[in-house]
Design a protein that fits this description.
three-stranded antiparallel β-sheet; single chain; 35% helix
Length: 107
């Protein structure tokens, strides 16, 4: 296939670019509402788009990536949002030194 040409390979529309085959789109038919809602919920949980989630799931199921998942801990969740505005300002003031860059170190 020449640069810029399109073709259907194994049911997937592809285009050639600099000698590489790149997938353009895959359309899924007959996706029921329960699956859509489950995908959206899982994508929100993992803070990714539905498209990214589907790619992750496909790669995992085909053995193209590790199935090892980073565990998200929730043991400190009850502390979120418990500071007053004054406490938050005090924290930022007390930790502002950590925001400074020592330029001599990075020469």
């Amino acid at each position: 296939m020449k640069e810029g040409e399109c073709d259907i390979i194994n049911g997937i529309k592809v285009i050639s670019s600099m000698g590489w085959l790149m997938t353009i789109n895959i359309h899924l038919r007959n996706v029921d509402e329960k699956l859509i809602l489950t995908l959206k919920k899982q994508a929100a949980t993992e803070d990714v788009s539905v498209n990214t989630l589907i790619l992750i799931l496909l790669r995992r199921s085909l053995g193209l990536t590790s199935q090892q998942k980073t565990h998200v801990y929730h043991d400190l969740d009850n502390l979120c949002g418990t500071w007053t505005k004054q406490e938050g300002k005090a924290f930022l003031s007390n930790t502002s030194e950590f925001e400074k860059i020592d330029k001599d170190i990075w020469k």
